Structure formats: C-alpha cells, structure tokens
Amino acid sequence: MNAERLRILVVEDDVVDQLAVRRVVRDAPLPYDLVVVSSVAEAANALASAQLDAIVTDFALGDGSALDVLSAAGDLPVIVVTGAGDQEKATSALKAGASDYLVKDARHGHLSALGGAIDRAIRMKAQDRRVKMLVHVLTHIGEAVSVCAPDGRMVFVNRAFCEMYGWTEREVLGKSLASVWPAGACSVYADGDDARSQGTVLATKDGRHLATGLTQSAVHDDAGKLIATVRIMRDVSERNRIERELRLANGALERSRAAFEELAIRDELTGLYNRRELSRRLEMETSRALRTLRPFSFLLLDVDHFKSVNDRYGHSAGDEVLRRVSLLIEGELRITDTAARYGGEEIAVILPDTSAEHATAVAQRLRERLEAEPIAIGSGAPITVTASFGVATLACDAASPQAVFAAADEALYEAKATGRNRVVTRVAMRKAA
C-alpha cells in the first residue's frame, strides 16, 4: 500500500530553486504533491483555496518574508529556508512559530534534509495539538480526574477527585496509586489499555467505600511510548452529586499544564531539552546576563566521527551512544545549567553565572570524562567516544543570543578542524555595524 501523500506548499521566488525542490521530491521519491508559488500573496491565495499539510518557504521573498507566510499559515507546520549565516533570521522565524529551518547552499544540498524536516514538523505539530486537547479535556470535564506518570505517580487530580475521595492535592500528588489504594483495590490500575471502562470499589480517606465507574486512557508519544495515563472516575452510587458542574482550581490546572508541557519540550531520544526549548532559554539567559552584568557562557559539543559509529555498528548503536553521552553530560552539570540536543550528534549547554575560565574547565572535564569512559553497545567490546567542544562567553557589549551561538559554533568548527577531541573558546562580541 502506498504511503499517504501530503500536500506541501512551497513558497520560493527563484525558478532554479523551485526546480531543485521538484527534482528532489521526484527523485527521492517523496510522497508529496507540491503546490509551488512565488510570493506571499500567492501563498495566501493557496492557503485559502487548498487543503495543505505543511509549508516550506524561503525567508526572503519579493513581496515580504517568511514571517508574513507564518502569519497566514494558521496551525500548519512551517519549515523556513534561510541563507548561510542567517542565524538571526532563523531564530526570528522560530520565535514567530516556525517548526524548523534549513540553511540553503548553492548546490541545493540542504534539500537532502527536506523530507526529515517536514516529517519532524508534522509530528511536532500533531504533538502540540494533542497536548492542547488533553489540557482542554482536563479543564472542562465534569467528573473526577487523575493523571499518572508511567511509573504510577499522580501528577494531577482535579477538584472533583478531592471532593469524592477526601484527600487534598498535597496528600496525593507525587504519591503512587498503590500508596493511595493499597493492594486489593489497585489491581485494576495496573493495566494501561486505552479507554478501558469497568467498575470497582475504592476507599475514601475516611474509610468509606465508593462504587466507582472507571475509564482509563493511555497517552502515547509519536514513537508509541507511554507518557501518561488519564483516569476518569464516577461515583455511581451518588450520580446526582457528580452531575453538577465541577470547576478546576487554577493552581491544579497550572500543575497539569506544566506536566504536559514538560513532555513537549524534551528530545525523545536523549531526554535532554529539544532545540526549540534551547532557543528560548538561550535568549532568556543572554538577556538576564546583559541586564545583571553577570558572566554567562555557552558551549556546543559534537561527538567525533559519529557517522563512522552508525556505519560500523548501526543506528541503534549510534542512538545508544547519544543516550550515554547525554546522561554523562547531565550528571556533570549544576541544577542551574541547561543541556539540550541541538541536532544530530550536537549537544548544547547553557552555563549561567560562568566565566570563560570556568566554562573552559567544564568543557575540559566533560571532554576527559567522555574519553575515559568507554561505552558498551550490544554484545561487542565497548568503544571509546570523544567529542569536540566550542565554548563562547558573553561580552558586556554582545548584541544578541545569536552572537553567543555564532561564537560557540566558530569555536567548535576550529576544534574539529584542528584535530578534534579538544576545547576552543571564543568571546561573543557585538557585530560591527
């Protein structure tokens, strides 16, 4: 059976680039039907008249820019194509709602990543919609609700739950179901099947037993991994009591929203923050450092010869290397630091209140730890992994987070070009006018 075809709007005013996109989609082949336009105005007409699944747009257009396309895109995922070195434009597009960006090169090599970028953007948008839907349901449902993490800990209960069973939020949040309802009443909760409805008897805090109608639904991510279980409970012995409208307390709603939003800002493979969250935190920490005149550093690391790991041992081994490297890095950082997967085998670390000297020392420590701890993959002998590090420290006259990122990227490039497995440090300065 053929894969479902997607309708992709391509906004590009260069005829050669239009032909290059068509050629890549045809030769790959990718399951896309392209709608190609040359301007913001034509894009707006296409959006109004056609059912589309995603948009790929050049940043600079004759009658506007990708930001204008984004404003008309509604809920569609958008991938923006920028010129080499246009990190500031890419960041502005991400802030305006773009799902991803590609950096254009003259030979159209960036188009080899087009399929993956569209796939990721569509999956990310679908995940955002699911999060919003779940929050809406939790906000408006008129029955007792609890949400549990995969390990069984309660992360959310609504006011109806507390009224029905007598516990306060503080008494149950963070507790396991088994500790709230000991063995005998908990077996019904062990199964994670979707939409399973049945009857059971559950005890209240004061020892009463309620005949309860229970419906539970498992929430999975795009990879099929369980991320939460939502349970809806009705006191079937007192139906009239639970039919009145139940209002969720604002504090409980915020805690539930935060729990689901945390799932949406994590990288699926490594558990580190994803690139979108990295951009947000980098901007926040740069602004704070400039406002308070406190030192601030940022580092990028790239696993050396990662492609050879994939080629020799397979992609599952490469995934295991990234997971182990991420785990080691997080274990070496302070609670105030932020580690994020920037892309592929690149990891970024934000180091607030950290001078160039101390940031370089952190990078050297991470580099030495990686080199000193072979990683076991499968049944074969452990392999030694090294990484190259680019460190950037914010100068007092730095203009933007893009300057910090660019300095770290340049330092990383030098580290790789001069032999790899080393640390190079730069100071992020304001760009000359």
The total of helices stands at 15
Strand order of the largest sheet: 2-1-3-6-7
- How far apart the termini lie comes to 57 Å
Q: What percent of residues adopt helix (DSSP H or I)?
A: 40-55%
Task: Describe it.
Mean pLDDT is 83; it is low at 184-195 and 239-249. This protein has 15 helices and 17 strands. The protein has helices spanning 15-27, 40-49, 66-72, 87-95, 114-140, 159-165, 169-172, 177-180, 239-242, 250-264, 275-292, 306-313, 315-332, 356-372, 401-417; strands at residues 6-11, 32-37, 54-58, 60-61, 64-65, 78-82, 100-103, 144-148, 154-157, 196-203, 209-220, 226-235, 296-303, 338-343, 346-352, 387-394, 423-428. The protein folds into 3 domains: 6-122, 3-Layer(aba) Sandwich (Rossmann fold); 141-264, PAS domain (Beta-Lactamase); 275-428, Alpha-Beta Plaits (2-Layer Sandwich), CATH 3.30.70.270. Helix 2 (40-49) runs parallel beside helix 3, helix 5 (114-140) runs antiparallel to helix 10 (250-264) and helix 12 crosses helix 13 (315-332). The longest helix has 27 residues, at 114-140. Helix 4 links the parallel strand 6 and strand 7. The strands form 4 sheets. A 5-stranded parallel β-sheet has the order 2-1-3-6-7, with helices on both faces. The chain has a 5-stranded antiparallel β-sheet with strand order 9-8-12-11-10. Strands 14-15-13-16-17 form a 5-stranded mixed β-sheet, sandwiched between helices. It is an alpha/beta fold.
